[in-house]
Amino acid sequence: MPTKKQKPPKVARKLALALAKAGAKGQVKKLAAMLKAIESAGDAGKPGTWEYYAHRFRLWLAGGMAGETPFSIFRAGGNKKLPFFTFSSLPGFDCPGKGDCLFWCYSFKAWRYPAAFFRQLQNSMLLRSKHGRQIVLKAWREIPANRTVRLYVDGDFYSASALRYWMKACRERNDLRVYGYSKSWELFLQL
Q: Which residues form the Gene product domain (predicted)?
């Protein structure tokens, strides 16, 4: 598997796309089988590798996505450009307003880092179930007061119900400064 400075091989990109597709469609058994195959391809005990994160993610799926999530839902501090809390989901798969930008979307570059990919996959899957949304809401409520939150650094509101969910969550936390960018204009018009 690639190191931090190397780009992943094409196989890794294809595999990440297959994992994302299965996760976005809720195909848990198929996703678990692919994760198991990744684990067995290398050392699943070596932190920072695709095998390691695939193992953590598969165990979480096997537990019914209950308990502690394998990755933080909101990323605190981000990087030097993003000194605040961020939320991301799968690019492309969660972007109903995507257009030509899909083919040059910067968000796919984050998939060089398996932890970033699996956080996006986890968040996309959480938002697609009532139980998962409760887990996200719990993490939302734990963000300290008077902070800035950027929704969807990667990904976008994938449905009108997801947009309504976030609008309600934002109203609940008027102590937060929340913003984001979206190409899902049609969903906003449905509100």
A: 80-190
